[in-house]
Amino acid sequence: GGVASGIALILYIGLELGLLNGFDFTLTLPGIAGIILSIGMAVDANVIIFARVKEEIAAGKTVRTAIDTGFKKATSAIVDGNVTTLIAAIVLMIKGSGTIRGFAQTLMLGIVISMITALLITRLAVKFLYVVGFQDEKFYGRQKERKLIAFTKPKHLFFGVSGALVLLGFVCLFVNQSSIGSILNYSIEFAGGTSTNITFQEDYSLAEFNEKILPVIVETTKDSVPQVQKVEGEFAFIVKTQELNQETRAALEKVFVEQFGVDANLITSETISPSISSEMKSDAVIAVIIATVLMLIYIWIRFSDINFATSAVIALVHDVLIVFGFYALSKTAVGNTFIACMLTIVGYSINATIVIFDRIRENLEVMKTKEIEEIVNTSITQTLTRSIYTSLTTFVMVLFLYVLGVASIKEFALPLMVGILCGAYSSVCITGSLWMVMSKKFRKKNG
User: Fold this and answer.
1) Most distant pair of Cα atoms in the chain: their distance
2) Which residues pair with 50 in a beta bridge?
């Protein structure tokens, strides 16, 4: 399974990069976020497939039959998860503007390629491996019998923890308003700022600048994530920070002159306007609302149950609000990466929820004599391995972005890691219980 998935994912990356180049897409940071999300979904599809194969082998089927049945049973979860995210991408492409469209373009492309590679390339690869001699079940694994975990039993505790986290986020917004003058730590893209052009007497590399000079700028301006750009072919740098008053500008100029020997006449600064307009922000909000409504309708139609759709959307909003609260609590800079992060969490959250709901839908047919609570707990337990593996692989990928990335990447990766953990928690601990509670109340009203 690992070998077949590896082959499919390598081909996936090759196709993605080739088509990005072929369509001449401009790759922005939100565009990279779209690639990250589609890679996570490609990994997820392979995890779902081979978890299913292991279950079929454990049920007593031959390896060949288990492979065919595993792919067949995994298809609905993969298609539903990808289609719901594709709906969001299409709406963002049509209604969004600027870098939001860059996110939508790479996400749409990635989703289409990931479905092709998972359902076609992975299948061909594993069948080839089977034909050339890998026919023993030890090469595919046998799902061990799982002890049923009662995820719905502490549902009130889970609901309470989630409510407290969301409330904490709102409290932080009011605290920030009184302490820093705004509910979030808006970056230059949102709030505007000051652009300072400095020409040095020697040619610093960007790495040398970041090591020797940037910490001094941060200390002087009190801006934790200034944007730095080296002017090609010159000894000059452009530093963009939050808006600086005359006193701070003078202090920064003094630092450059006294500590780095810069000629005061070669230091200029100007006020810059925000690059993210109010129109772009409103476009993003409208696009997300439309996408959420369309996803709700799709899930309602596919699952023939409004409770599935409603609980999926509530879980999605829950994840977004908690990450929003993290931005407020940690005072992480809110800029282009904020929109990219939120959109990535929307796609990731709904995909994780769909997998569990797909299993609940299947078990409702095969466990008709069982209580609804047992069906939900069985379904979550059966998909727990998938939830852990997918969250772990995506988390590790984003963790490397955080460890190895520059400041702008870090401010994107950290909230995204929080979103991944939150998405895993809500899909396992919240969505199933929420659907169960809503279903029971609905049945009581009708019966």
Assistant:
1) 83
2) none
